[in-house]
Design brief:
0% strand, 130 residues, 6 helices
């Protein structure tokens, strides 16, 4: 399967656990250090670099889940993986991809948590392979 952006099914499946973990950024709760470490471990296991994870967060997830942070009654509980998968399939099936204005409003809200996650991702990249 190809998306309009050329995302093959194997790449979609590789990204899915990372997307599911990253949706924690969009819940109406504070991310704990354990959650940040878990997200980093999932991204590392999938083999993504910090810039790739950042692009997934900002360009793929913000347009789909960012509005939750703008809602006065946002979602508090994690979304089921099947829900994340369905929403991402819908997003990639669209012919037009934009994250404005949601992206403009939500990106500043993610900066602190992204900086925390990036520290773990970068530290893991610097660790020697065993």
């Amino acid at each position: 399967m190809n998306s309009p952006e050329g995302l093959h099914e194997d790449e979609f499946q590789r990204r899915l656990p990372v997307w599911c973990a990253l949706t924690s950024f969009f819940l109406d709760t504070e991310l704990t250090e354990d959650e940040v470490q878990h997200i980093a471990a999932v991204a590392q296991q999938a083999g993504y670099s910090p810039p790739e994870v950042e692009q997934m967060l900002l360009r793929e997830l913000v347009p789909v889940f960012g509005a939750n942070l703008l809602s006065t009654a946002g979602e508090w509980a994690p979304w089921p993986n099947s829900f994340v998968e369905d929403r991402m399939r819908q997003w990639f099936a669209r012919s037009c991809h934009t994250n404005w204005p949601t992206g403009v409003l939500v990106r500043p809200m993610l900066r602190t948590d992204w900086a925390r996650l990036k520290q773990y991702l970068t530290a893991a990249e610097l660790e020697p392979s065993r």
